[in-house]
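Following up on my earlier thread - several people asked me to post the actual chain instead of describing it. Fair enough. Here it is, all 83 residues.
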Amino acid sequence: MKIRTHAESHVVELDDGSQWKIFPGDLATTLSWKPETDLRLERSAERTSSHVLVNTADQSRVRVIPADETWPDGEVKNALRGG
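Reply from S.P.:
Thanks for posting it. Predicted structure:
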């Protein structure tokens, strides 16, 4: 999959029309993403996110949830402080 739009730093739209909210702690990983970056969407077993986007070139991963969902209460704070 390729990136259709990434106008907001925390939301990415893929060429299949799906929109994903990027975990705040993973935003730095997305700074190098370009429209031609090839991504793969995978299910996640983490409590923090339902899926991960994997950059197929370097295998970097970012946690994501559907753009219309919200992060689980307290999970963002816990993950960002290492809890």
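The two ends are 32 Å apart (CA to CA). That should answer part of your original question.
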